[in-house]
Amino acid sequence: MTKPSIDLQDLRRRLYVKAKAETSWRFWGLYVHVCKMETLRKAYALAKNNDGAPGVDGVTFAVIEAQGVEAFLGQIRDELVGRTYEPLPARRQEIPKDGGRVRVLSIPAVRDRVVQGALKLILEPIFEADFQSGSFGYRPKRTAHEAVARVAKAIVQYKTRASGTTGCWPRWRNESTTTT
Questions:
Q1: Share in percent of the chain as helix, strand, coil (round to 5)
Q2: Count of Cβ atoms closer than 10 Å to residue 64 Cβ
Q3: How many CA atoms lie within 13 Å of 141's alpha carbon, on the beta-carbon side?
Q4: How far apart are CA 28 and CA 18, in angstroms?
Q5: How many H helices and E strands in the chain?
Q6: Residue 175: what pLDDT?
Q7: What does the alpha-carbon distance between residue 15 and residue 129 come to, in Å, rounded to a whole number?
Q8: CA distance 42 to 121
Q9: What pLDDT sits at residue 149?
Q10: pLDDT at residue 39 in the model
Q11: Do 39 and 116 meet the contact criterion of CB atoms below 8 Å apart?
Q12: In whole angstroms, how far apart are CA 67 and each of 33, 72, 74, 81?
């Protein structure tokens, strides 16, 4: 008997709930979900929304759509399932900075962005469950501005932590003002 197919949103929700409920649980068999066409379609849509320059192969989203997105994703899926997928080297782009220095950007090919996005879609809910509510870096629906606002609020309230727990003046400050 085979299990019925589960849609991506429901799968992500289930992964999160399981990871949150059982912190020592080890997940197995996630690769099959990365290879699903539904996951690859969503990853392609996310990559397309970010747009960006083409990688070393010069393939743009316009070229992919002219040749057919389903065929493009089918080829990626076949390579993933057949374990023959190999990422292309990243294109290096130098951006000048102040003082004559340069910042080097590595630009992956669209196909590699799709695969990275598919992996992120499957792994993200598992890791999200482990993060504390005060963590902001590189998390969905959280910004650096929110992190700064949270720290500013904690400072105004004289908290020693920005985690939301009640704090007081730092110990060194209390000790320096007491006399014995």
A1: 50, 5, 40
A2: 19
A3: 4
A4: 13
A5: 8, 2
A6: 41
A7: 9
A8: 9
A9: 87
A10: 96
A11: no
A12: 25, 8, 12, 22
**Coil/strand/helix, residue 14:** helix
What averages of pLDDT result for each successive group of 10 residues across the chain (180 residues)? 75 92 89 95 96 92 96 97 96 92 94 97 89 76 85 79 48 42
pLDDT of residue 113: 97
CA–CA gap between residue 96 and residue 161 (Å, rounded) = 38
- Whose tokens are 């002219």? That residue is 66
DSSP state of 87: P
End-to-end alpha-carbon separation of the chain, Å?
77
DSSP string, 40-107: HHHHHHHHHHH-----TT---HHHHHHH-HHHHHHHHHHHHHTT---PPPPEEEEEE-GGG-EEEEEE
Are the beta carbons of 19 and 70 closer than 8 angstroms? no
pTM: 0.75
Q: Token digits for 39?
A: 């996951």
Phi, psi of 142 (to 5 degrees): -135, 140
Cβ contacts of 68 within 8 Å, gap of 6 or more: none
Q: Are 114 and 130 in contact (CB under 8 A)?
A: no
Tokens coding 64: 């992919």
